[in-house]
Amino acid sequence: MTTADAIDRAGQRLADRVNPIVVKELRQGLRTRVFWIFFTLMLLACLVISLIAFAAADGVGKDGRYYFIAYYICLSLVQFFVIPYSAYRSMSREREEETWVLLTLTGLGPHRILRGKMGSFMLQGLIYASAAAPFLLFSYYLNGIDLPTIVIALIAGATYQLFLTSVAVSAATLAEARIVRALLHFLVLGFLAWGLIAGLTSIFGLVESVRNLWSDSAARVATCATMFGMLTWGVLLYESAAARMALATESYAKGPRIAFMVQIAGALAFFVWGAFASGEPSLYPVGAITMCAHVFFVGLFIASDRDGMARSLWLTGSKFSLLKPGALRGYRLVLLMLGAVTAVFVTLTLLDKAVSDWRNFNLVLGAPAFAALYLSLPIIASRLLRHPPSQTAILVRILFIGIFVFGAGLPPLVAAIIGIEPDHVLFNLFNPIVGMVNLGGTKSDTNNHLILLYAVTFGAVVLADGILKGRDNPPAR
Amino acid sequence: MSDVLLEVKNLSRHYGALKAVDDVSFTVAAGTILGFIGPNGAGKSTTMRILATLDVPTAGDVLLDGKSAIDHPDKARPLIGYMPDRYGTYDDMTVLEFLDFFARAYRLKGQERENRVASVMDFTGLFPLKDKLTSALSKGMKQRVALGRTLLHDPKLLILDEPADGLDPRARIELRELLKALAAQGKAVLISSHILTELSEICDSCAIIEQGRLLATGPVHEILSRTTGNAVSSELVMRVWKGAEGVDAALARAERLLLEQPLVAAVTVEGQAVRVRIELPLGAAPAAGWVEETSARLLRALVTAEIPVSSFQARELDLEDAFMNVTKGKVQ
User: Fold this and answer.
1) What's the pTM value of the predicted model, to 2 decimals?
2) Domain assignment present for A231
């Protein structure tokens, strides 16, 4: 066997191990006109900038930072816009031309397919970055920027590209109807345009202040929190896309629910760290409200899953697992997360001896009650209507908007009409906005109001849980 | 008949009040082709998607090689080759790249993969086109590529949803031959189509579905015998020449004469043609060649009566007749 044969065989063996989607997408991606046009334009732009830098160089200048930024703009246009958009188009085509079904039948599974897609687009980004690398290095020789800054900027850029690609791929799995897909297309374009500007601004900020990262703890926390947010949201969106594209026979809910729990746990840990570092008790209600709003928003998608699950899933694992598909288990998981958030913030509030203001405590307790109540109401309403199960998720979200607008807008309006204060406490007891404001206000008797709110919320939770439990039956043989 | 490979038991799929599939049961044996027919919206594609493990039933079971495909979809998938009504090819890939990609996706490795792709291209006649982009192929060839993809992992059961839709006559005939060859290899084939004449030529049996309910299943002649109430029916078509007395008079004499003959159930005059429906009495076993014998007798009677017959031929009732007899044209 010659060396060439051996290399060829090794290459074949390697190709056999690589995710086939990566091979396919790279093969397709590198054939497109878009790739070659942007590749050529980026190189030309970098070349022109280099010629300008060469002509302007006087040997003592410190303009490297500005030239680095100029090179980075050329690269980021591709990294933050062209590549995520190509990923969106690729995924959309897969759904429109119904090749997705054929892929899932091969046994690849939605996770592996999406990983392959995202991996191939990250590799395309690497190809662009490697073409731009000599120019970025050239900026180092122009003085004014050090190598660690260049490396950090490139790593941050790659992370951001991964996040944007994840958002784009996830968005492509959202819509079924043609009109919604067209609308979504424009939304994605708009989001990526905004993402490009936001990304560039952040990278410039990072380049300017990277030295402060080692000395300024606030900058460090902010950078870590941003990276954590991008990472967990990226993973959550990726898992949600995989769940949406999974077959009903698969345990599609496991990934997004684990990602959700990790995100909540991580965010709580960040908050505890930040709270202890700053020693500022007024942050607790803000944290509780923000976290409950987040749990509620994500929970709305988790708890509006379809009823029950495939028979194959009833046969495997524990039937009490909250990671299995089904609205009942999703709803209970969201309640559990709300409970965890409440427990953490109540503990933080109690531990802080400086907390003397009971209004903070009311807000910390009120936020999860409102979240649980407004999560339960649309679930109760949607299950009482007659509709095909496939519409449940959309129906719950539409009902939520209706009930939220109704709950927030009607009480002040009626109060004003009948001639009492629009922010009357009892009238707005279940108002998610005015009610919360009242709980944190100076009006009297808020403890009793809080008990009443909890009693009604408890009733709604028990009712919603009972309705979902009644519909959570294994399919008949 | 060989062993049953696919057994569908009381399968139902409900969307709220809509019963897309309602208590459907049938079997497909290895080495046979079952035609799955019904009007648009009858529930064919929904049933096929459940059989392909892409959807879950509200009730019922699907046994594949004796094991439940509903309880263990992961184990069932390698046994199933599913071709949806849309071919789904990647336009910017060549035929070879497309098949190679799917072979990789099916986890075929190295030489085994190359051999399998070559064998599939050989079977489907795609070798001469292997370096062509799929976008440059005709619809018939694209359909072959899609069939090739379905065969890559050597499934035991093929589920083909409207594979002949939009194909020209040549491509349809070629597809028919491919399907016959696959059945001869021992594969069970479940095929849906609107082109009933196509199905009647290749199917060993058929299942007729309407409004989600299975109306009839079994060999075509059995369904016909059930729906007509006789052991076997047939139809003769004859034309008359105007002759000396004129067409109308000749047709009237022919109609009267034919109605007097034994086994003639009905006579219909359409223009210059006369359709004669012949039926064996209820419970009578069809003797070999009874249609030919009856035809000869009727022709002799017509000629003896000096009716100017210009053409005379027998047409056995087929799947189309069975379909029209069984369905009511209702959609949900």
Assistant:
1) 0.79
2) no
